[in-house]
Design brief:
Elements: E1 19-23, H1 28-40, E2 44-48, E3 66-70, E4 76-79, H2 82-92, H3 103-130, H4 132-147, H5 152-166, H6 170-173, H7 180-198, H8 211-223, H9 228-237, H10 239-248, H11 269-294, E5 299-304, E6 307-312, H12 315-329, H13 333-343
Parallel strand pairs: 1-2
Antiparallel strand pairs: 1-3, 3-4, 5-6
Helix pairs in contact: 1-8, 3-4, 3-7, 3-8, 3-12, 3-13, 4-5, 7-10, 7-11, 8-10, 11-12
The structure holds glutathione.
The site of glutathione has 12 residues, from helix 1 and helix 2.
Length: about 350
């Protein structure tokens, strides 16, 4: 029996005002959103299911997590995509905001969140489906999380089927013999830079978490705490990063203040180092993807960190780039100046149409 079938018929009741969502522990974006809801003290009901919930609407593209939110007519609609959902909840629920007050810092936060969602996830998928020990573990555990009780023979069948489905999908994220070492080297540099930052700071952009923290946390729930190869690497090189992931799960007891955000005009060197790491790999992928989409190509080829890179083009990542650029264009002149200065020399500029 699937976990979804065990959901009570009242699951979609709109009488209960708590937010309804479905997802599973092996989905980084589910973990991102559950941690955000906890931190923001937004009441929620998580249905642990991976293939839709009987009686509830389905999204056009089935993704985890899926939120079931009242539409204009009051009927529940299936809504996906964590980044715009975080902004929707910022407008809907007061206090304990995850988007920094200074629009310049908010855009840095959005950039790091986007890097986590769209680039770090390559490392997540790569480590999970590249190495024997990781494939073995994910094959056994993901079906248990998604489907609930089953006998040994069924579990073995499900493990084989998920491995057979996911391993060929590695090429979708761009992981292959040529790009694998680029992905791994970038993960190592990221955790080294984040470890360095965590020597003096509690969160990415201050003493309170932003959307970027939740994005990074989501991917690290898997990379640092689940998949054996990347977990061992993280433990060995970055104990603070490993520990941080444990703390991010539930920050409902934190009492954030406005003064806890970093000052965008005086970012610590460790934030600039993280931005430099992002600038080293991420703009090349985003810009080549956007160019391919514009040309109607299904694949893009570029160079990332001095090595060739080939992968399928993703319309969603084209949208992410457009959102970042829209938010940059919307900055008032003083905020834009603060933002430009913070980004100078990091290599992230081309994402926003700047020379560097
Ligand atoms: N942009 C989405 C990405 C969500 C996503 O890719 N979820 C994965 C699981 S972590 C998924 O549902 N993949 C399709 C599948 O597993 O069938 C978000 O931010 O929520």
């Amino acid at each position: 029996m699937s976990a979804a079938q065990e959901v009570p018929a009242t699951a979609g009741s709109t009488a209960d005002a708590s937010l309804l969502l479905s997802g599973v522990p092996g989905s980084p974006y589910t973990r991102k959103m559950v941690a955000l809801l906890r931190y923001r003290r937004i009441p929620y009901r998580l249905i642990q299911a991976s293939r839709g919930v009987p009686g509830l609407p389905s999204a056009k593209v089935h993704l985890l997590p899926t939120f079931y939110l009242p539409g204009v007519d009051g009927k529940l609609e299936a809504v996906t995509d964590s980044t715009p959902l975080i902004r929707r909840f910022e407008a809907q629920f007061a206090g304990r905001h995850a988007v920094p007050i200074d629009p310049a810092l908010a855009l840095i936060d959005a950039l790091i969140e986007d890097y986590a969602d769209e680039w770090l996830t390559k490392a997540m998928f790569h480590y999970r489906w590249r190495y024997a020990e990781d494939i073995h573990k994910a094959g056994l555990i993901l079906p248990c999380w998604a489907l609930g009780p089953m006998d040994d023979a069924t579990l073995q069948t499900m493990a084989t089927s998920i491995r057979d489905r996911q391993i060929p999908r590695l090429r979708f994220v761009g992981s292959n013999e040529v790009t694998g070492p680029v992905i791994e080297a970038s993960y190592v540099r990221f955790i080294d830079a984040f470890e360095d930052h965590l020597r003096g700071h509690r969160f990415l952009l201050g003493e309170r978490p932003g959307a970027a923290d939740f994005g990074v946390y989501g991917q690290l729930t898997q990379l640092a705490h689940f998949d054996p190869t990347s977990m061992a690497l993280t433990l060995q090189r970055a104990p603070r990063v490993y520990a941080w992931v444990g703390t991010m799960e539930d920050h409902c007891g934190l009492e954030p203040t406005d003064a806890q955000w970093l000052d965008c005009t005086a970012l610590p060197a460790t934030v600039t180092a993280l931005l430099r790491e992002i600038g080293r790999v991420y703009p090349a992928a985003m810009l080549a993807n956007a160019a391919a989409l514009q040309a109607g190509a299904t694949e893009f080829k570029t160079e990332i960190d001095g090595k060739p890179w080939v992968q399928q083009a993703f319309p969603y990542q084209g949208k992410c780039l457009a959102w970042l650029r829209r938010d940059y264009q919307a900055l008032a002149p003083d905020a834009r100046q603060r933002f430009d200065r913070a980004l100078a020399g990091t290599g992230c500029g081309p994402i926003f149409g700047m020379a560097d």
